[in-house]
Amino acid sequence: MADALSTERTGSTSRPIDGVPQDLKRGFRFWIVIIGLGVTALLAALEHTVVITSAPVILTDLQLREDFVWITNAFLICSAAFQPLFGQLCDIFGRRWIYIAIVATFTLGSGICGRARTGGMLIAGRAVQGIGSGGIVLMNNVIVSDLVPLRERGKYTAVVLAIFSLGISTGPTIGGAIVNTTTWRWVFWINLPVGGVSLLIMFLFLYVEYDQETSLIQKIKRIDFIGNGILMAGTVAILYSLTYAGTVYAWSSWHTLVPLFLGFLGLLLFIAFEISGLPVEPVMPVHLFAHRTSVIVIINTFLNSTMYFWFLYFLPVYFQAAALYTPFRTGYSLLPMSLFGVSGAAVAAIALSIWGKFTPLHFAGFAITTLGMGLLSTMDENTSIAVWAVFQSIGALGIGIVIDTLLPAFQAPVAEIDQAAATAAWSFILNTISDSDARRLLSGGGAYQQASAAFVTSFSPSVQAEVRAVYREGLKRVFLIGIAFAGLATLLVLLERDIPLRQELDTRYGLKDDMEKPEKNGAGGVAEQKDINLETEEVVQCE
Predict the structure, then answer these.
(1) How many angstroms separate the Cα of 93 from the Cα of each of 81, 430, 523?
(2) CA-to-CA distance for 286 and 274, rounded, in angstroms?
(3) pTM given for the model
(4) Helix H or strand E encompassing 327
(5) Mean pLDDT per segment of 10 residues, for the chain of length 543 residues?
């Protein structure tokens, strides 16, 4: 089937003809790939939302205690650490097989988690899942960037979001239903058929241009092994330190300070190595951060991601440990977060395509998030359904407005040839309780594991009130800190500059035309930058 792109091809660069926008001439295979990206995004959505409502049951069954944090941290560490490497690999070896390998890795990790008999095996499976999940998020953005001009990407991102919203909306309820009716292992096994469908679609339809002339040895030499190794080691050391700080080890303990110091030293060494000129192709080119807007967007991406994960992981704690909801009821109580978050993201993505300005969207989103965090911090054990639903919706709407408009803002000052590297860089980033048994179970990192109505109601009414108060006060602090994070992001937006979004697509990785023989594309990822939008270049120079 023909891709039906009405374009001229010069090398591998696709351009509009006769003033007809390229996005108006999309064929069947293009739309199948977009839908396939949505199915793959469904994997990531199910992973996050299905697991969160079932986490206390899983942790209790495997008795992880203070190691429970590694269920999340192993996933997040691997997700972040491997993204820059994936960005470089897909530039060198092309998108198709890297993407297929990433989806297969995630599916394998889900199978390992489902079969886990020990906490260590579950953590290992989560690490494998993390590698795949980080790659899915990265590659979805990279492939959309390959197929659609920057200004038009919001329209197609909205299609992916529509499928993604299916997992976000139903995931918590599915997770709650699973742990109520069958084994928690289906929380992970549910990913296997979805992963299989995604692999089939991408294997059959994702054929994209890439450098086929360079030899394998030459391609391997382009990989920044040293830079990737230093970055991974530094990231792991920092997160290891923060995992046990204040729970197993004191903040002043050498167990906390030594890995923390080594981790930050590793990040400094990584920066020094990347700017030294030693790597043939730096995994994270320094010029990506040469513009004020890019730096602000990276900082705000970190802040927004932090608030997103607070929502995702701490709202279920409130519902189960403070409000005493069952896992199933907790699942459908998270629907406002899903519906308003995804709706906000879709509307913002389309508005960005139509309007072409990201700064007002960022300001509005972060301001709404700040309000939402403040409202959530006021919740207690007796907050009514109507009140917490409104509070949850406001916070989720703010995060949703921002979440898919940050990447285009980071890509705007960067030439198309650096889109994969730019996308990889962006993606990287107790009160007194009278009962001694309750104190023991909640100390040393046990509070998250025990966050369930079944645990709380196992004590006398007076101790129940004390335990619920502990969770209430702990969550209040979480959301109060969220106010500071969201407020800082809102202020930083004032320093952003609305760089024009490119309306032409200049890429060497577009879909192959089925009516043509595959083209050979010369020197790959080290080609010179060219045909940069002049208006964009002038704005960047002004900064």
Answers:
(1) 19, 51, 12
(2) 7
(3) 0.65
(4) helix 327-333
(5) 33 40 62 86 75 75 72 80 83 85 93 90 91 85 79 72 71 77 86 89 80 76 86 85 74 87 91 84 73 80 81 81 82 82 83 82 91 91 91 91 75 58 55 51 56 68 73 79 87 82 65 48 39 40 42
